[in-house]
């Protein structure tokens, strides 16, 4: 694939962000995103009980730098300061997550009054500053008590999630502009239940498929629950989408790429948007036996009409046939991955982020076009609910952070988003992330933020990317 014009010319916007802002479509939402477990801290506050990530991060060797999220960015106590930063930045909306194990300790029963009070304060602070709240119900922090009974491998967890969604809708539904039910069910399934690199650390490979289905069922039941709670905001789901290419020209590589596309992308989007699971290539049918047992009523619930579909885009994936020769995955080491029938290959033609992920903005257009081609009239408006990059930011002697690589990343990707793709109504883009945070198994070793956080003092320092995005937003004319 040749590099698109928008990607080639991204550098021209480094010193002219307002000019790029002038290309922003009318009504386009610019936002920033975070998640509860990664920024809130106060893990022992307000009656909160452990989530699967509390348990996972306490296990030796799980987190690269040996850190934990007990304090992280202390957003629980510093939310007003962080909202002021958002107001200064000029964003339209803030995508955050409600901590399930904070709001509903143990995953059952009534919501914690003190936790409701915290999120009330946050939402009211956002609204007072002219920022529209987008709340994600589940961003990976499954209550540990539910994991003891099987977590997302068990159907009952979907019903517990629907109960939590209804109670959350009752508590905050009059003030939340948009709701995301589940964030990245693919990542939870693949990293958490198949490969063991995320919580809860299971290594089930294709036997992890019940976790995928039950998250989708939880989503469908949560949509019904939110509407039963008479929420006023729009409702959607979000998944991380990675366009897939075969590593070579062989039929085996093409089949391997199709398999990866199914397990990463299509078994999540197809049921939600089309009401059915994708057709599995004959050589791999035996790996998907669980999907042949799905009840039709489940698919009816899963495919409930949505107001938007959220898409997190970070990178494409290149796939070859045959098992991997090492245990490296994009998110950590997984010895069990050597048993997979495909392997992921590098993209030497692209620069990489701090995580080693390829920076390929033109594939954002591919991701959008794939959705238009696959889902046609069934595709609701799309929102890029996450997009961003980690880099080893360096604080200069004067205290500034010149993160030019992140500015270029945003310039290239926003140019693609603003240009649009036929057949897609793209409503917005949320930058990951507002703040440097606790980045799951990378601990504090990967920084995605527009705002630098000193994790010892909790001081916040806007980076060059913050000022650049501020000027871009200020330059829009529609």
Beta-strand level of the residues, as a percent range?
Answer: 5-15%
Major beta sheet, specifics?
Answer: 8 strands, parallel, barrel
Shape: globular
CATH architecture annotation: Alpha-Beta Barrel
User: Helical stretch count?
Assistant: 16
On the 0 to 100 scale, the average pLDDT is 96
Number of domains: 1
Q: What is the number of E strands? A: 15
**Radius of gyration from the CA trace?**
21 Å
- Strand arrangement, largest sheet? 1-2-3-4-5-7-12-13
CATH class membership: Alpha Beta
> How widely separated are the two ends?
33 Å
Q: What is the CATH fold-level name? A: TIM Barrel
- What is the CATH superfamily label? Glycosidases
Describe the structure.
It comes from Conyzicola nivalis. Substrate binds at residues 38, 139, 183, 314, 432, 439-440. GO terms for molecular function: beta-glucosidase activity. Belongs to the glycosyl hydrolase 1 family. It is a single chain. With 478 residues, the protein is of the alpha/beta class. 37% of the residues lie in helices and 15% in strands. The strands form 4 sheets. It has an 8-stranded parallel beta barrel, surrounded by 6 helices. Strands 6-8-11 form a 3-stranded mixed sheet, covered by helices on one side. Helix 15 (404-419) links the parallel strand 12 and strand 13 (426-432). Helix 10 (185-194) runs antiparallel to helix 11, helix 11 packs parallel to helix 12 (251-274) and helix 11 crosses helix 13 (296-302). Mean pLDDT is 96; it is low at 1-8.
Describe the structure using short key phrases.
3-stranded mixed β-sheet, 16 helices, single chain, 8-stranded parallel beta barrel, TIM Barrel, disordered N terminus, 478 residues, alpha/beta
